[in-house]
Each structure stands twice: as C-alpha cells, then as structure tokens.
User: Fold this.
Amino acid sequence: MSRKSLVVPQAQAALDQMKYEVAQQFGIQWSPDGYNGNMSTRDAGTIGGNITRALIQIAEQSLGSGARRF
Assistant:
C-alpha cells in the first residue's frame, strides 16, 4: 500500500477540506488548482501537523464515546 492511498477513499474530500481550513486559519496561501510547489516546508509542516493533531483528537473522542476499540 502506498503512503498516499486512503483506507477509505471517500475521506479524500474531508481531508482536502481540512487542508483548506488549516491553511486559512494560519494565513497560508493555498492554491485552488492543487499545485502548491511554491509553499515553504514550514507552511506545509504547519498544515500537516495540525491536520494530524485534529485527526488524533477526533479519534480520541470517538474512542471515548464507546466506539469499538482495537
């Protein structure tokens, strides 16, 4: 499985929305055409790190509410 393949392909739209929201929150320019090659590594890390933080928080809340545990 490649790093970029999603376990749930339908989650792509939600992940893209999170990218836009985090970028906007930190004042980072996000290219609407999908090309962000001119983005600094620091900005990309800010977006990725905050998305990861949000996903972990969502998972912890889900587990805390009695969801199936692994």
Remarks:
- DSSP finds two helices and no strands in the chain.
- Residues 10 and 69 are 22 Å apart (CA to CA).
